[in-house]
Structure formats: structure tokens, C-alpha cells
Design brief:
Strand content: 15-25%
GO molecular function: ATP binding; protein histidine kinase activity
Enzyme class: transferase
Distance between the termini: 43 Å
EC number: 2.7.13.3
Radius of gyration: 36 Å
Number of strands: 13
Strand order of the largest sheet: 2-1-6-5-4-3
Order of helices and strands: HHEEHEHEEEHHEHEEHEEHHEE
CATH class of the largest domain: Alpha Beta
Largest sheet: 6 strands, antiparallel
Organism: Flavimaricola marinus
Catalytic activity: ATP + protein L-histidine = ADP + protein N-phospho-L-histidine
CATH superfamily of the largest domain: Histidine kinase-like ATPase, C-terminal domain
CATH topology of the largest domain: Heat Shock Protein 90
Structural class: alpha+beta
Shape: rod-shaped
Length: 363
């Protein structure tokens, strides 16, 4: 950021003050010049009030001789007319790591004492009321017509909102990276687990495509809710609608799940449905599935119970080994929800039940 317009006004302010201080009051001409200088000084000070940032001016010795009202509104205390560069520590502020900013670190000191042409620092400034905000301080020297340094000026800019937006952006990027990493992990797991169980290239491709489509469906649902949460009924309908052909009945209250739980449930519902199509109730025309969920209140708090009940299909046989689908509908869901999955292979059909704590807060 350039301070040239501010520098020019600061230069003129210092020159006017010097004229007033050195003028010969015994002369009528000097008195007239002093009045003109005083009027010019008042005009320049009024101009400084129109600048949309805080402005502080120091003389060649480092004494702060001027500050516009914007400074006081930002810092919520009167201008501190520090006597020299060693006194700037009375403007209390802190680095990002919590260390106090020392006098020599302020741009005024660096420009006046160290002869820097441009000095800049972002500080966490402590206002007069005890609150803190992020402040950017930019300093440059002020020179007279001969090019000699006669002081320095700094612009004070409130960057609190800028910092908040940057922090929010960093959090968003970190969350996005986390979600992408998790998505790749799920895709890798889907492919690797499918490869273990299927030998047919056609069957492998179809299985992987279907599982990834189920995962993508849940992603699309979450995008519409800004990755916050999704209703269990909507997730179930999106996944099961194309599979069930109207033979999966769904019922339950409006219950929202956290985003990561919605992804897990979409995969679980898909595995339950495809298993029913291949081996269970949906493998025969008369078979039906009832998916229901309910909220219950107990001594340990509220819980969500989900029931998948198949009827009208062949009597199921309990598998001798657990595959990817069993992991997704069992252990994976338990780890994600903190719940407990129970299954039964009854003469009427396969039964799946999940009971989980109804906790709407991110863990």
C-alpha cells in the first residue's frame, strides 16, 4: 500500500508546525505569516480527518505530534503522544504467537531509528476497553523540500475482518482437503474390496460403478446442504428408489444426520438393497422390504433406531464369511455412529437393526 497522499499532507503538517514554532512574533510580517500557517495547518488537519484510515505523525526525534480521530475510534483510547521511539511500547499490541510487540518493532521506530524506507507490521492491538483487534501499521519517512527526513508517518488499518475471512478460508481449505482425502480412501476401499470377491471383469465393473454411484449420490445430497447434514429419509430415498422398484417401504420421522454419517448410511443402504436383490426378498416378485426409523428417549439420552426387515423372499442362509457389504453395514457403521448393529436370518427373511445415540454434534 502506498502512503504518498498521506505523506504529502504529513510533510505539509510538519512544515507548517515548524514555521509556527520558528516564526518571529515581533514582526508584523511574521505574525501575518504565522496566521496563514495556522490557517493552513487547520486546513491540513481537517483534510487528515477525511482520510479513511488512522494516521499518526512523528517528528524526527520520534515524538508523536499528531493523530487523526480515526485512530482514536479504532484503538478506543486517546492518542498517546509518545516522547520518542523508545516509548512506543505504551501502544500495547501482540504478535500472532502472543509475544508483546516491542517499541523498536513498530514501523515508526524502524523508519526513524533504522532509516527504513517502508516498514509494515500486523499486530493484535489491545484497545482501551481491553478488547483486541487485528491492526496493520504501515510506515514511511516524511521529507522536506531538500529531501531531508523530518519525521515519519504511519497509516493504521483495521484488518480484523480480513483476518477472520482468511482464517475461515483456511478452515474451509483444511476441511475440503480432509473430505477429499476421505473420499479417495473410500473409493480405494470400494475398489480393493470388490476386486477380492469378483473374478468376472463385467461383474466387477458393474459392482464398482454401482457402489461409486451410491457414494456419489450421497455427496450430491450433501453439496446441497453445504456439507452440513442430510435427512435420513432423503438419503434412503435417493439410494433405494432406483433399486427397489416401489417394493421398499420407508417410514419414520424427520431426522437429520451429520455429513459423515450420511455418507456411511448411503453406502449401507446400497449394500442392504443390492444384497436383497441378489439373494433376499427383492430377488422374487412377491418379496418386500420395510425400512423404518424412530427416535426413542431412554435413561442414557435420545437414540435413533433403524430397522431393515425383509419378507416374502427365500429363507436366508447366514454367510460363512463376511465380505465388503457385511463390513459396510456392520462394523464400519458402528464405528461411524457409535451404535450397535444386530442381524437375524429368520424364516421370513433377513433382518437388520441399528441402534445409535442421537448426537447431532460433530465429534
Amino acid at each position: 500500500m502506498s502512503l504518498k497522499p498521506t505523506d504529502e499532507m504529513a510533510n505539509e503538517l510538519l512544515r507548517m508546525q515548524e514555521e509556527l514554532a520558528t516564526g518571529n512574533s515581533g514582526s508584523k510580517a511574521s505574525s501575518a505569516n504565522a496566521r496563514k500557517a495556522s490557517q493552513r495547518l487547520s486546513f491540513l488537519e481537517a483534510m487528515m480527518e477525511t482520510v479513511p484510515v488512522g494516521v499518526v505523525l512523528a517528528d524526527a526525534d520520534g515524538q508523536i505530534i499528531y493523530g487523526n480521530s480515526h485512530v482514536e475510534r479504532m484503538v478506543r483510547h486517546p492518542i498517546l503522544h509518545s516522547g520518542d521511539v523508545e516509548s512506543y511500547g505504551e501502544w500495547v499490541s501482540f504478535h500472532e504467537d502472543g509475544r508483546p510487540v516491542q517499541s523498536h518493532e513498530y514501523p515508526l521506530s524502524r523508519v526513524i531509528r533504522d532509516n527504513e524506507e517502508h516498514a509494515e507490521i500486523d499486530v493484535h492491538y489491545q484497545r482501551g476497553d481491553g478488547t483486541r483487534f487485528w491492526l496493520r501499521i504501515i510506515g514511511e519517512p516524511v521529507r522536506n523540500a531538500e529531501g531531508e527526513r523530518i519525521g515519519a508517518t504511519v497509516a493504521l488499518i483495521d484488518i480484523d475482518e480480513e483476518r477472520r475471512l482468511r482464517e475461515a478460508q483456511n478452515i474451509l481449505i483444511a476441511e475440503l482437503n480432509h473430505r477429499v482425502k476421505n473420499a479417495f480412501s473410500v473409493v480405494k476401499s470400494i475398489v480393493s474390496q470388490s476386486l477380492r470377491k469378483l473374478s468376472s471383469q463385467k461383474g466387477l465393473r458393474e459392482t464398482i460403478d454401482q457402489r461409486l454411484n451410491a457414494y456419489a449420490t450421497a455427496h450430491s445430497k450433501l453439496v446441497g446442504t453445504s456439507w452440513d447434514r442430510a435427512a435420513i429419509g432423503e438419503v434412503a430415498a435417493d439410494v433405494l428408489g432406483p433399486i427397489g422398484g416401489g417394493r421398499i417401504e420407508m417410514s419414520g420421522p424427520d431426522v437429520e444426520m451429520l455429513s459423515r454419517q450420511a455418507l456411511s448410511f448411503s453406502m449401507a443402504f446400497y449394500e442392504l438393497a443390492t444384497n436383497a436383490v441378489k439373494y433376499g426378498a427383492l430377488s422374487v416378485p412377491e418379496g418386500r422390504v420395510n425400512l423404518s426409523w424412530e427416535l426413542n428417549q431412554g435413561d442414557g439420552g435420545s437414540s435413533l433406531e433403524i430397522h431393515w426387515i425383509e419378507t416374502g423372499g427365500p429363507t436366508p442362509d447366514e454367510p460363512t464369511e463376511k465380505g465388503f457389504g457385511s463390513f459396510i453395514t456392520g462394523r464400519a457403521l458402528e464405528m461411524e455412529t457409535g451404535g450397535k448393529v444386530e442381524t437375524a436370518y429368520t424364516p421370513d427373511g433377513y433382518v437388520w437393526h441399528l441402534k445409535m445415540p442421537q448426537n447431532m454434534e460433530e465429534q
